[in-house]
Predict the structure.
Amino acid sequence: MAKVMLKNVRISFPDLFEAQSIKGGAPRYSATFLFEKDHPCHDAIKAAISEVVKAKWLDKANKAAQEIKANGGWPIKDGDIKEYAGYEGNLYIRANNKMRPQVIDRDKSPLTATDGKIYSGCRVNAQVDVYAMDSKDFGKQANVSLLAVQFHKDDERFTGGGSAAAAALTDHLYFRFFPGAAFSSHEVTKITQETGETKYALIQDK
């Protein structure tokens, strides 16, 4: 595993205080982090991926990296393929964990859900752990575990996938298989997104 600090990135779909169970799988805490393509964390994440891939597959690391990209297991994604507010022109990674991440304010005091300090669109610092694995169902993967999130500063709140006037928007998120989590590869539909709180419904296996 390789730890990475993400500084001054925007957070989206934060499930930091209540773990969400997908299709009866083990509940997980999760968040998506967005950053510009020239953001310093981009190189840091790529370096971490390279480190864990080399550590796991040794002299076959280059071939493994190609396989990871080919099967969609590369954790850095292009925001232009999404229609969510704030994603265009940026990159993003999604991280999760069965264990609750540490969530703190700028002064490092603990935050709770009732504080309302962390919302979709605000800027945060986050610590994540990158690791490589062989999945029986999806082949070689590079995944990201969520460790901690710190509020950094306010920014424009994400109100939807493109139109703040829309009362309900339909979109898709892709969740990968993690060993022991009982996850299947599937799509979920975003039913509503109000004041940074998102509700999901399973629609089908992928």
Q: What stands out?
A: The longest helix spans residues 40-57. The radius of gyration is 16 Å. The chain is about 15% helix and 45% strand.
